Amino acid sequence: MDKINNSSYLCRPVYSMVKVGELNTYKVELKNMREDSCLYEYTLDSQFFADIEAPDVRKGNLTVTLSVRKTGGAYALSFHTEGTVTVPCDRCLDDLELPVETDDRLIVKLGTDFAEEEDIITVPEEDGYINVGWYIYEFIMLSLPIKHVHAPGECNAAMTEILSRHLATETAEETDPSDEEEDTTGNGDIDPRWNDLRKILDNN
Prior knowledge:
Layout: E1 9-10, E2 27-29, E3 37-44, H1 46-51, E4 59-71, E5 74-88, E6 95-111, E7 115-117, E8 120-124, E9 129-131, H2 133-143, H3 157-175, H4 177-185, H5 192-202
Helix pairs in contact: 3-5
């Protein structure tokens, strides 16, 4: 992480944790910036993901450095985020810790109404600020791999065995001739719960 440049105004103190229910922590003043550049620092813990109501993150421990630079009629926001998050494994559903390190950028302008166009955000000039909490969350999630799975041999063996047995049962039922006869009458639909189990195993 780069050290704070002496020419930048440290807008807020370093946050040791996210206060419960206070996403206002991430409101960045633009219209009333006292310098042309400004630095924000945050430390995100599990409470941040609870406040943002993130469905796929169980825990987190990350640091975020946000540099805001006024340039012409816009503001360039540069984010550096690193740390770890804990998500459920797609294969066994146990906790899986994933590393995070990402650099992201937004351009923000002041205008009449709120609008988003690619990486350019327009916020109402009468408000004069942007809340970056949700954007930080999106940057973190976009940095993660599509599949969240343990390394080979590290999954919960008991859960993997149970799911394997369910899949074997489902396969046997699908190939049973009596099932085919039932399907022709419209009474042999597969229980949708088996489809959910198959999706989990497909990630194996």
